[in-house]
Amino acid sequence: MKILSIGAGNQKRVENLTTLDIAEETNPDIVWNLNDFPYPIEDNSFDLIECYDVIEHVDNIPKVMEECHRILKAGGKINLTTPHYSCNNSYIDPTHRFHLSYFSFDCFDSSHTYSYYSKARFKIVERQILFEGSRIYKSIMSRIVRLSPHFYEKKLAWILPAWFLSFSLQADK
Predict the structure, then answer these.
(1) Does domain 3-171 have CATH number 3.40.640.10?
(2) CA distance 128 to 103
(3) pLDDT digits over 76-110, tens only?
(4) Three-state DSSP class for 52?
(5) Radius of gyration, alpha carbons of the chain
(6) Domain positions in the chain
(7) Contact, 77 vs 170, CB < 8 A?
(8) How far is CA 71 from CA 11, 62, 121, 126, 135, in A?
(9) How far apart are CA 1 and CA 18, in angstroms?
(10) What is this structure's pTM?
(11) Distance of CA 170 to CAs 51, 73, 102, 107, 114, Å?
């Protein structure tokens, strides 16, 4: 399995892992600014893209997702994490351009109302709102969110803030 780690930082090198980062000092395999298109990667070349705490920094999420879709093999996945919009970490970092929700990647699914925002198509395999705190608190909040993420984000997010979001999306080609 070929893996691309975007925003890899000082990630340890392993076989079949290609690292991409804007910071030369982290010694990535590819030094690249994600806001420059297209990426210097061939079409259909990776099985998995890891994008942890990066997507909130880019200028244009739909364009980045289109590039990820292009370089993923059919059925390949992208795993993303980002602070939840209710988390203070989402606002502390002045380089965060976006504050994202459980539903932020729905527009990449062709069955969604706003699918015209991008040509990239993904199936949401898994998504979670994760919480910080005691095991009991995390368990209670996870149950509430599983019952209705829409209710949580509409009514509770600013009262009981989340920590971060985790997504696994499969390229639909």
Answers:
(1) no
(2) 10
(3) 999 999 999 999 999 999 999 999 999 999 999 87
(4) strand
(5) 16
(6) 3-171
(7) yes
(8) 21, 14, 13, 21, 38
(9) 11
(10) 0.94
(11) 14, 10, 16, 14, 18
